[in-house]
Amino acid sequence: MAEINKVDSIEKLDALFDRSYREPVVIFKHSNSCGISSHVLEMASGIDGELNVIVIQENRPLSNEVAIRTGYSHQSPQVFVLVGGKSVYHATHYGIDPKAISEHLLAFV
Predict the structure, then answer these.
(1) Residue 109 pLDDT more than 70?
(2) From CA 30, how far away is CA 20, in angstroms rounded?
(3) Buried b / exposed e across 67-96, counting CB within 10 Å, b at 16+?
(4) What pTM was estimated for this model as a whole?
């Protein structure tokens, strides 16, 4: 099971992007009012690694910042695997594949 960490400040987001230069980082943008998002988050929480979650209703500015930094417009649910500050894997809704996330994590370790 994934270690789930809530991202609720720009400092935490900055730290994740910085850390992506040393190891792959997963960011999951979650809507707590969307059944699809809840289901996909549950599926993604099965990865062997850390899942950093931004709840968009609580932290829309952080969600917007991820869109700016990655170049991908906002959606939810939405997941990124970051390496070197850039997205090497991006998916939304039921296109989010926990197996693909895990493969991207292992590919850069």
Answers:
(1) no
(2) 20
(3) eebbebeebbbbbbbbbeeebebbbbeeeb
(4) 0.96
Give me 85's structure tokens: 């500050």
Written out in words, the top-level CATH class of the domain with range 3-107 is: alpha beta
Do 53 and 6 touch, CB atoms closer than 8 A?
yes
Collapsing DSSP to helix, strand or coil, 7 comes out as coil
Name the H helices within the chain: 10-19, 35-44, 60-70, 98-107
**79 CB contacts (<8 Å, ≥6 apart)?**
26, 27, 28, 29, 44, 89, 90, 91, 92, 96, 101
pLDDT of residue 75: 94
Q: How many CB atoms lie within 10 A of CB 30?
A: 24
